[in-house]
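Hi W.,

Here's what went into the run:
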Amino acid sequence: MNWTETIRTGLSAVITHRLRSALTILGIMIGIAAVILTVGLGEGAQAQVANEVNALGSNLLIVTPGSTTSSSGVRGGFGSASTLTVGNATALGSRTVAPDIAAVAPTLSTSKELTYDTTNWTTTVVGTDPSWLQVRNETLAEGRFIVQRDVTDHAAVTVLASTTAQELFGFRDPVGQTVDVGTTPMTVIGVLNSVGSSSTTNEDDQAIVPITTAADRLVGGTTRDKVGQILIEATSGGTLSAAYQETDDELLALHGITSPGGADFTITTQQQLAAASNSVNQTLTVLLAGVAGISLLVGGIGVMNIMLVSVTERVREIGLRKALGATPRIIRRQFLVEASFLGLVGGVLGAALGITGALVLPHFISDPIAISAAALSGSIAVAVAIGVAFGVYPASRAARLHPIDALRSE
Amino acid sequence: MTGRADVEDVEDTEDTEDTGEVPVVDTGVYPAVRLPVIELVDVTKVYRTGTLEVEALRGISTVIEESEYVAVMGPSGSGKSTLMHILGCLDVPTAGTYRLAGEDVSSMTEVELAEIRNRRIGFVFQQFNLLPSLNASRNVELPLAYAGIDRAERHERAQIALARVGLEDRVDHRPGELSGGQQQRVAVARALVTDPDLILADEPTGNLDSVSANEMLALFGDLHASGRTVVLITHESDVAAAAQRTVRIRDGNIQVDPVPLGRSR
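Here's what came out:
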């Protein structure tokens, strides 16, 4: 008896017991769909994090004041006051000090209410210098960006991100208009292109002003040259670690710190940002996938259960087939084909359900679901494997049946 | 449906000479080389259930030759069913020798027995034992499928076998759409289709009304007339009367066994 014949026989047995087969398939199907969706959620979240981190700029290093220690989280340096200064940023911008650094942008952020005419909108106001555009990988939709002269002059000018401009001006042209940033009137000199929003921060909702303007008119405080962050762009992806080292060495030297453990600043890379977000996502994904895996296991037990029932119910048929010349191997194969067919159909339908879910669910939840071909083919393979694995025992039982006992049973 | 090739018969002659059973060769106008299809030499079967031993067969010896029509008769508990299982290669004897068409099957493995059953024996059961999900043709094709014969040939041979039992117009019917007599005829077609050495029928009329039963016996008579070897197991004497020769068994022993026809000549 060849394979095609065996497969035909197995299939006709599945079709004969439609309802029972359908219920068994349903078990596998739900398990597979659950696995595909949870893995898809995990992959979607990771892709989102990667996008968000990439949107920050390329080959980016972020220097923040204070240092993190492994157990107690953030430790503020020097009484929590910022330890980073404009001078630090300028020093890092020197080609001789740090040859692997392409651009440096110090930033000083605060939250302010922007008012134009009768419209107001609260957003993040970022004080920075002309390098910001390059470091953050942003582009201008219209107008111009802050130039060095604006910084030197403490000019009352601002560049709006796309959402902010939209909220304040609607379809009117913002360039040349005056908005009140807090209480300070500023001229809008440009609008940024949209870079896309993320769930955590909206890069399209901010207003950029010269760092000097931000320091004296918006943030206030005693020391005017303190900065909130220093953004650094390495010359290339390959020089990122060199840039990291140069930044670290230079800042330690400038701050007069001899032991690296005593650093009063923290340098974060994009990869670290991504890794921090992903580790949370991964934990959640593993947990969900575990639950989905259990439902798949239950589906597999369903296959075994139904195959055992099938063997018991068809004892006479097995006996007859043996009397007519079927060897134990052929009988075993027939039942294995049946079980793996249940698994295969369950897997394919489960994959279809998973894809449907991936298309429909994002309309109801904010998270994207990524379905990869590898996940799909993998889960179908797993479904078939489950069918086979849970079909082995029932199939061997069928194969071991003695033809006499089988024929005798009523 | 013609008999086996002459070449095979010659080979079989040599086999039987080796075993010491000298077949009578009719040298008349119609050459009829009579060979033993079944040779049982002191066959015993003991069933063990825990410490209890049941001797179902206590040394059965007989010979059934080609083209014979033999009824095995006995009351229930006589060992008749056990004998049927051994004759049908569904079970092996505890001791003794069983040769089926010259092949010693007493110590064969399960796989070898499956092959022997497929090639040499056509079964007809009391319960018909047709698969309800398959039509008549597919049911008849089943043993050919296990023999590894391709679909086209299988189908063709099934049509011939069904025509042989008068069911050429019922090939696409499922067992549920056929009467008991028709179902049993499908079973006979299935037994015939592999062109076996032996047709073994176990109470084939047990589930049939008397009209169908008579038709069935007529069919067996017909098969015998065309040169088939038929062994029919029954407990009804009027069914046994249809056979040429009746072997009566009781308590695991042969009580009455008329001299095989072949040797009586």
